[in-house]
Specification:
The chain has 115 residues and is α+β, with helices and mostly antiparallel strands. It has one domain: Bira Bifunctional Protein, Domain 2 (BirA Bifunctional Protein, domain 2, 2-Layer Sandwich). The protein has two helices and four strands; from the N terminus they run αββββα. It has helices at 3-20, 93-108; strands at 34-36, 39-49, 52-59, 80-81. Helix 1 crosses helix 2. It is globular and about 35 Å long. The chain starts with a helix and ends in a 7-residue tail after the last helix.
């Protein structure tokens, strides 16, 4: 039972998704999330109760980033927010979702069951 391990595994899922698209995501020491060319492309936030996790991550696929200049995302003032669409114009959530599921099953060694 190690929450830091879990957070790093979620980062690994996201790094593998970026790799599918030929993008080199990064981790920054001391910060949680995934970065692409210095911009935060994925945020991670979990809630844990009795070792059951809730919430997870947000991968910015094709959001409107206009409002982000008005806030300090995740309390990190010297870094900006980015999205996959900036690197792959026209990409959609429907395209990325199967890649996320595949990376999740690989990293965590589980089988996903869809209802």
């Amino acid at each position: 039972q190690d929450l830091h391990w879990y957070l790093r595994q979620l980062e690994e899922v996201l790094l593998q998704v970026l790799d599918v698209y030929g993008l080199n995501g990064e981790r920054y020491p001391g910060l949680t999330g995934v970065w692409l060319e210095g911009r935060k492309i994925a945020a991670i936030g979990i809630k844990v109760s009795r070792w059951i996790t809730m919430h997870g991550f947000a991968l910015n696929v094709c959001p409107d980033l206009v409002g982000f200049h008005r806030i300090v995302p995740c309390g990190i003032s010297d870094k900006s927010v980015g999205s996959l669409a900036e690197f792959i114009p026209g990409i959609t959530i429907d395209e990325v979702l199967p890649q996320v599921a595949a990376a999740f099953t690989k990293v965590f060694g589980v089988e996903l069951i869809y209802h």
